[in-house]
Amino acid sequence: MMVTSVAPVNIAVIKYWGKRDEDLILPINDSLSGTLSVDAMCTKTTILASSTLKENIFLLNGKKQSFENPRLLNCLQEIRSRANPGLPQLNWNLSICSENNFPTAAGLASSAAGYACLVHALAALFQIEGDISAIARRGSGSACRSIFGGWVQWCMGSSPTGEDSIARPIAPASHWPEMRVLILVVDDQKKKYSSTTGMQRSVETSKLLEYRATEIVPKKIEAMKEAILMKDFESFARITMEDSNQFHAVCLDTFPPCVYMNDTSHAIVNMVHTYNKFKNSSKVSYAFDAGPNACLYLLDSVVDEIFSVINYVFPPVTSHQADYITGIPITREPISEELKSVFEHNVLDKYGALRYLIHTTIGDGPKTLNSPDDHLLNLNGLPKRSYDD
Amino acid sequence: MMVTSVAPVNIAVIKYWGKRDEDLILPINDSLSGTLSVDAMCTKTTILASSTLKENIFLLNGKKQSFENPRLLNCLQEIRSRANPGLPQLNWNLSICSENNFPTAAGLASSAAGYACLVHALAALFQIEGDISAIARRGSGSACRSIFGGWVQWCMGSSPTGEDSIARPIAPASHWPEMRVLILVVDDQKKKYSSTTGMQRSVETSKLLEYRATEIVPKKIEAMKEAILMKDFESFARITMEDSNQFHAVCLDTFPPCVYMNDTSHAIVNMVHTYNKFKNSSKVSYAFDAGPNACLYLLDSVVDEIFSVINYVFPPVTSHQADYITGIPITREPISEELKSVFEHNVLDKYGALRYLIHTTIGDGPKTLNSPDDHLLNLNGLPKRSYDD
């Protein structure tokens, strides 16, 4: 009995930061994200349930993981409690094999896609019907948003048991087909603290966080939903940037402070504002998660030009464009002299500051793959491919 | 008729950020600072009033400045309106010569010392009695705090005319003689936006600033006053660091964001927290103004050790210690192996990240210098020394 699912990454435009319940993963505010196409970035997970498996196995990107991870066990337990008690596979061991189609070294949030994919595959395996976003939430908070495609709101809910802390689709991917996403992967050697640690510390020490969560975010959620439904890019861009900045402001207000953006991240912010000022309109917006990488939301009409700007401000050190940009191809146009003149001349310290770029769109939610070729495991529960590193 | 004053720099431990009146320079919250000794850092200003001067002249660090600067004119007007109308010098032109004894290139806030010194010298020239902090405030908000030595509160006041927006001494320099200040001047080529521009933008766009100003700062001011009066370094350090972080958080919550700290600044923050964690106590605290330089407040017993830590984490590129550290001499001890082990090993990118250090104490307020040798001008109102650059 084998199932394989793929699930997407999502990038929040109204950020989730702070839990009111650590175990149930209940947030202190609503959040809202775009689900990215699985073509460029996704997690794929195959699960085999078999009476012949001697033990539970969990392989993530080829590395054996402990099955005693409480978040994994919470997801499994919630799934099993919803299944028909007569299912034989409820008593069998599992072999789980999961991998990302994007480099994990990039520091791109992969736990959302990972847990959404795991829960989606488990739901197929145990024949669960109905909304599974609250189950995915037990794995990683933002994973609940990756259960749906398009634009997705995570409603914080008010129940102490978390049953109403679920994701809700706002608009499908097809609603705003012009929307593009450019991810700028920033070179950075700093050791990171996990977002779990960071948000715990923020809840305990930031005096601004509660005000943000209770007074500011509810209004932003409404304004953002309207901007998306009206396809009002100007408002969308402004709210996205403001919320990203405010999230990092709260991280800085934490004690000791959590600093996820670095000088390159701030140089990207500066580049976006300089470009928008030149255009006299918010043509590009940025959102930064708990790391230095930038996620730019923009419309397709702007992609070629902003790419030429990026190449001017952050000259790549590699001449292999195939390595440097993945996803949807971009036409590499020369930057106009007029546009060049508005950017800082001193780019010497920005050579090689970007590792690579991913160009993608808003996409659909998780899906089950039905071709046997898609499975990552053989019938013995062992991975088909060999993992070298 | 010639007077010469010197006035100190001050470094806020509860930050001033945001005006409720741009012209009168009235703040949206109280602030509190330590006044630094004039031995290491000060502004010196000589003013000549003479009936033979053909025009008003203002030289700052050897460079001619416009006399039409509204802040300068506001200070002059306030001083003149308080003077005895019969004074002959009220009708004479002025030659003003001002210089800092620390490199202006350092990006250290010099306007506070500059305007405090100007107003102090003008008050002497026009024989003004009583508190002049509200006059210094018209030059630069934080200048009002440099009118007093030791620990100084700037009370925001409530009058629309600003008459109660004045500085008030909390404790003299002699109250806490163990207190030391280490300024770490960070290498940085970024173009800066002035704090005037930054705070205007914060008032207009940050949704967190008002909450900070009205709900958080008043409590912090009381807690900080108590910490200073009780010489409770642990509390002093914690509040200082939290307030510096919150000030920069509000800057980041501004749209477009104001980013004053850079990767080196954050590496200093990280060094301080690592050291304090090792000591299991807040032995060192940091405060960052609108720039990347760190101001460390610490007690004298810690100076030698933290200097060895700084040299380990940020290896200086110069071998000339005389250039690298100014102010009170520090014993250069080797760092202990135990202490070394808690800091990040990868320091390669931090070579030369610090330009130089200033070691100083809390000191007294402005004073008049009475020896003719102290004057920067000759009797013709021309500078005695030649300025080459």
From TrEMBL, chains A, B:
Q: Please give the pathway this protein is involved in.
A: Steroid biosynthesis; cholesterol biosynthesis
What region holds the Mvd1 C-terminal domain? 181-368
Record family assignment: Belongs to the diphosphomevalonate decarboxylase family.
This one is known as Diphosphomevalonate decarboxylase
UniProt entry tagged with the keyword Lipid metabolism: yes
Which EC number applies?
4.1.1.33
- Residue ranges of domain Diphosphomevalonate decarboxylase-like N-terminal in the record: 7-167
GO BP annotations of the record are:
cholesterol biosynthetic process; isopentenyl diphosphate biosynthetic process, mevalonate pathway
* Highest taxon of source: Eukaryota
- Gene Ontology, cellular component aspect: cytosol
**Which one of the record's GO molecular function terms can you name?**
ATP binding
Keywords, A to Z, come to: ATP-binding, Cholesterol biosynthesis, Cholesterol metabolism, Lipid biosynthesis, Lipid metabolism, Lyase, Nucleotide-binding, Steroid biosynthesis, Steroid metabolism, Sterol biosynthesis, Sterol metabolism
Q: What reaction is this protein's catalytic activity?
A: (R)-5-diphosphomevalonate + ATP = isopentenyl diphosphate + ADP + phosphate + CO2
Function statement = Catalyzes the ATP dependent decarboxylation of (R)-5-diphosphomevalonate to form isopentenyl diphosphate (IPP). Functions in the mevalonate (MVA) pathway leading to isopentenyl diphosphate (IPP), a key precursor for the biosynthesis of isoprenoids and sterol synthesis.
